[in-house]
């Protein structure tokens, strides 16, 4: 038995097909405009998940590049400053060597060379204090808003963040089974933040007394860290400590750059204070003969001290050169890391395009087909409406 197709059935079917053609045409038109494979997760769940991972990696990569660029700028300023410091020491090295022989032909110029040493010491500190990235002092460690170095009122003591750089080393208590839990691990120079305020036993008190010394504070400042994520895999161990090599330490404590503390002879390790002390000694020489004999009978001891400090000045200069070389090496690493991040950005962009972007030719072809189907649907509708009007009139 044949089924009779009524006008209402034909119209409903026509409207349904026309709506589908209209939606298909609108979607293909949007794809031609946006050049995207999908606009919602439901259209392609698997591809959408992959694209989300790529976009997350792109966001992280942008963050790594910003951190790297910021760190490169800081290290560039530090490199330029240390370059000036090292060059200042090297340029004066020949003049300093002339005064090794107390009876040299230049003996009468010792007073002037003493002034040169003092001026060099002060110029080094000026260079270190003038190294700024925006409003931040590059060599100030964590306290980037204040100049790292200051002189005492008499101009003879150099302070790093308020602590004398000539502070004598103090040995910490021995580590044993009674070492308090709040004491940082061996090799960790940071100050503990959870020392007991009251009720400490003798062993704890010994550690508290140690961490309250100027030496412990200075040593902690010289070994401050400022870790930044540059895309090296940032990981922490089970105790919450950063895994070495997964982040970059961009801290540049100025006191570590120039040296700090006293050696076994009680002489300063800081190159500025070595220069300052030598300057004091040679400025006290007789301006005519260069002799120290008239200095209250301390001439021989001062000569001995000056000779000893001249050797240590060379060691201090080599120490500063090593610090400068370390900054230079890190600067090269940062530049290479930036190039790696930029190359990774290109790779991620390509992967994103493969997942999300349409081939323009395919998109236009699909749009043309959908437009043809839509036009055909309109033509069928014209014929259907004409026939329905005749049936109605009959």
Structure in words:
With 394 residues, this protein is mainly α. Helix content is 59%, strand content 4%. The protein is built from ten helices and seven strands. It has helices at residues 7-34, 45-91, 93-98, 110-130, 202-211, 214-222, 254-258, 271-283, 299-356, 360-393; strands spanning 132-133, 136-137, 149-151, 158-160, 163-164, 227-228, 248-249. The strands form three sheets. The protein has a three-stranded antiparallel beta sheet with strand order 3-4-5. It has a two-stranded antiparallel sheet with strand order 1-2. The protein has a two-stranded antiparallel sheet with strand order 6-7. Strand 4 and strand 5 (163-164) form a beta hairpin. Helix 2 (45-91) packs antiparallel against helix 9 (299-356), helix 4 runs antiparallel to helix 8 (271-283) and helix 8 (271-283) packs antiparallel against helix 9 (299-356). The radius of gyration is 38 Å and the shape is elongated. The two termini are 26 Å apart.
Features of this protein?
394 residues, mainly alpha, 3-stranded antiparallel beta sheet, two-stranded antiparallel sheet, 10 helices, elongated
Sequence stretches where pLDDT stays below 50 over 5 or more residues: 98-105
Average pLDDT level: 84
Topology pattern, helix = H, strand = E: HHHHEEEEEHHEEHHHH
> Count of DSSP helices?
10
Give the total of beta strands.
7
- β-strand amount: under 5%
Estimated helix fraction: 55-70%
SSE class = mainly alpha
Question: Mind summarizing the main beta sheet?
Answer: 3 strands, antiparallel
- What would you call the shape? elongated
Order of strands in the sheet with the most strands? 3-4-5
Distance between the termini: 26 Å
């Amino acid at each position: 038995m044949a089924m009779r197709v009524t006008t209402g059935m034909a119209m409903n079917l026509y409207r349904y097909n026309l709506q589908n053609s209209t939606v298909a045409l609108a979607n293909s038109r949007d794809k031609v405009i946006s050049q995207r494979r999908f606009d919602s997760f439901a259209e392609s769940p698997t591809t959408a998940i992959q694209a989300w991972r790529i976009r997350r990696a792109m966001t992280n990569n942008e963050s790594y590049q910003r951190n790297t660029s910021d760190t490169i700028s800081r290290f560039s300023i530090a490199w330029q400053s240390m370059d000036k410091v090292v060059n200042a020491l090297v340029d004066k090295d020949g003049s300093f060597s002339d005064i090794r022989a107390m009876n040299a032909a230049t003996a009468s110029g010792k007073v002037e060379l003493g002034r040169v040493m003092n001026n060099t010491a002060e110029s080094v500190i000026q260079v270190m204090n003038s190294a700024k990235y925006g409003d931040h002092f590059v060599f100030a460690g964590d306290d980037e808003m204040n100049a790292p170095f200051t002189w005492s009122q008499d101009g003879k003591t150099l302070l790093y963040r308020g602590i004398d750089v000539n502070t004598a080393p103090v040995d910490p208590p021995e580590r044993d089974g009674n070492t308090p839990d709040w004491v940082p691990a061996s090799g960790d120079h940071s100050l503990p933040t959870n020392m007991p305020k009251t009720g400490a036993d003798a062993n704890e008190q010994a550690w508290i007394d140690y961490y309250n010394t100027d030496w412990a504070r200075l040593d902690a400042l010289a070994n401050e860290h400022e870790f930044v994520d540059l895309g090296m895999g940032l990981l922490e161990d089970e105790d919450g400590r950063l895994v070495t090599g997964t982040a970059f330490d961009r801290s540049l404590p100025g006191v570590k750059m120039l040296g700090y503390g006293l050696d076994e002879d009680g002489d300063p390790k800081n190159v500025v204070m070595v220069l300052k002390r030598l300057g004091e000694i040679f400025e006290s020489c007789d301006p005519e003969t260069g002799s120290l004999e008239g200095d209250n009978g301390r001439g021989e001891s001062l000569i001995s001290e000056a000779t000893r400090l001249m050797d240590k000045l060379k060691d201090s200069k080599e120490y500063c050169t090593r610090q400068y070389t370390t900054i230079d090496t890190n600067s090269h690493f940062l530049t290479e890391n930036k190039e790696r991040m930029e190359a990774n950005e290109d790779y991620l962009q390509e992967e994103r395009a493969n997942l999300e972007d349409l081939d323009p030719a395919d998109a236009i072809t699909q749009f043309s087909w959908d437009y043809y189907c839509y036009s055909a649907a309109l033509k069928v509708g014209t014929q259907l409406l004409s026939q329905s009007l005749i049936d109605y009139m009959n």
